[in-house]
Amino acid sequence: MKDKVTKLKPVFPDKNKEGTITAANASKLNDGACLLLLMSELALNEHGITPEFEIIGWADAESLPVDFNISPTSSAKKAL
Predict the structure, then answer these.
(1) Which ranges constitute the DSSP H helices of 7-61?
(2) What is the DSSP letter of 5?
(3) Whole-angstrom Cα distance, residue 34 to residue 46?
(4) Model-level pTM?
């Protein structure tokens, strides 16, 4: 299997016909990006920033690697 994986061609090649995303390492679900900036109330006041959101709770969950896509649902249920 390993020799097959190393011979896979990139799905999104760049201008040099190279790339790093292949069928073996691409997520089966759509990938996304997110940025979250956390700071204390003191830092908010110090920099004159008005928060748009407040974290009022959180939770953590884990699952078997094969079930990785259900962990967010599990943690959301715990948090709620």
Answers:
(1) 41-47
(2) H
(3) 25
(4) 0.40
* Side-chain-facing half-sphere of 21: CA atoms under 13 Å: 8
Residues 9-45 have pLDDT tens digits of: 887 777 787 777 777 777 665 566 667 788 999 999 9
3-state helix, strand, coil in the chain (%, to 5): 35, 0, 65
Task: Give the pLDDT band (50/70/90) at residue 59.
Answer: very high
d(C-alpha 50, C-alpha 37), whole Å: 12
Burial of 25 (0-12, 13-18, 19+ CB in 10 A): exposed
Domain boundaries defined on the chain: 1-29, 34-80
In the block, residue with structure tokens 């990938």: 31
